[in-house]
Amino acid sequence: MCGIVGIVSTEPVNQQIYDSLLLLQHRGQDSTGIATADGDQFHMVKAQGQVREAYRTRDMRQLLGNVGLGHVRYATRGSAAREEEAQPFYVNAPYGLILVHNGNLTNTRELTAELYNVDRRHLNTHSDTELLLNVLANELQAGAAGPSLNADQVFEAVSRVHERVEGSYAAIALIAGHGLLAFRDPFGIRPLVLGRRTGPAGGDEWVVASESLVLESGGYEIVRDLAPGEAVLISPDGWMYSRQCAANPRLIPCSFEYIYLARPDSVMNGISVYDARLRLGDVLAEQVAAEVPAGDIDVVMPIPDSARPSAMQVAQTLGIEYREGFFKNRYVGRTFIMPGQAVRKKSVRQKLNAMSTEFRGKNVLIVDDSIVRGTTSREIVEMARSAGASSVTFASAAPPVLYPHVYGINMPSRRELIAHGRTTQQIAADMSADRLIYQTVEGMDRAIMAGQSLVTELENSCFTGEYVAGNVDAEYLAWVEATQES
Ligand SMILES: O=P(O)(O)OC[C@H]1O[C@H](OP(=O)(O)OP(=O)(O)O)[C@H](O)[C@@H]1O
Ligand SMILES: NC(=O)CC[C@H](N)C(=O)O
Ligand SMILES: [Mg+2]
């Protein structure tokens, strides 16, 4: 998952894009980029690292214009370290296009061959985003009748993109002289929300972003989540056009957004992330009560940050005291989205510290939102034991992660997943926990989708092995495993 934002304003957008990217930092820490359109002229700045370190004042000054977009990257194809894969990507024809993308394409091999053999387009990186941009460019070119471009032509091009591209993609593009285009894949796997406000001199200002907290913070009203397959085109003077561009759209958003990726204060597809995490805690508590005799646990503790709402709810539902025994160094980022196992492992130790007075002589129930590689849980159990815990029960608000994720979370290989091919008891032994309790898939679905009717299915492939988009078979998974850095 990456974070994306696009804004059409009545005033310069550079600072607004920067501020929005700071709010989306939790979605990607590898690199960042901003592009603006000043009439027909594009300006772009990209850099490795996080938003606060990436942009200097002179970079910001050159980002002129009232229309723009931005990106924070968490690499899922190619490499986090390659500067040329930082987004946005640019192509000069047709018209001039710049694009940012959250998601991951699954037919990259076919697209790469087609783009070269049929469309005669050169690709310079291993990024799937470069592919997406070139397919869009090709389809816009194919439908272009002359120098002017109308909304119908743009939407027809997006329809052809949907036909050619497989996988997950929430994307925002600038079309020089024509404004901002945003579209979401036909399953709506990755999020994208549209907002509007009135500018200081009147006139509509628009934002499209990965998460609603960007809208809230900028004083925009939420218009709606883009529907799966829908495209929105906003002209530089604030006219908004939209159309359903997919033949068979079906909303199946990624459950991992609710479990871990998104900020709790965002609302996605009408579901509050915070409420979903509370309910995950409620349902997990049922599981704990069924597996652990009453009185066997003295205290419930979260692993900061993402597990807090679920852990609070586990404690409350079970009537057990809630304490914070792990303290977090606020200057260390999210460890799961860091590139490379060595840095992730080291960072867990730098990030979290166990306070022995909270652990000594106690039977603790530690709650995390998810266990993926086990990097966090292995370290945490060891910390709890050295801090003097009598026993350590570990509970995960998500079910066991058993399969690779190919739609925008970088878990390419089965081997690295602590739960793959193991029983719960074996995993508990691996992390040296006395007991391990997992949420069930049914419980997770119930918790996330409770109390609403818009979302009736979730993209759960990393838990179930069922892949909704593209032809994700054993051969493809073996290829991803062999070629993608994790
Ligand atoms: O089993 P693992 O491979 O360690 O992955 C799971 C852990 O990683 C995430 O934490 P992270 O530190 O990224 O972010 P957070 O502060 O939002 O919890 C997640 O919340 C789990 O704690
Ligand atoms: N996490 C994402 O959305 C990644 C976008 C794109 N696949 C990249 O690797 O840059
Ligand atoms: Mg965590």
TrEMBL record:
It catalyses: 5-phospho-beta-D-ribosylamine + L-glutamate + diphosphate = 5-phospho-alpha-D-ribose 1-diphosphate + L-glutamine + H2O. The keyword Nuclease does not apply. Its EC number is 2.4.2.14. Pfam families: GATase_6, Pribosyltran. NCBIfam families: purF (TIGR01134). Pathway: Purine metabolism; IMP biosynthesis via de novo pathway; N(1)-(5-phospho-D-ribosyl)glycinamide from 5-phospho-alpha-D-ribose 1-diphosphate: step 1/2. It comes from Leucobacter soli. Binds 1 Mg(2+) ion per subunit. InterPro entries: GATase_2_dom (IPR017932), PRTase_dom (IPR000836), PurF (IPR005854), PurF_N (IPR035584). This is Amidophosphoribosyltransferase. One of its GO terms (biological process) is 'de novo' IMP biosynthetic process. The active site is at C2 (nucleophile).
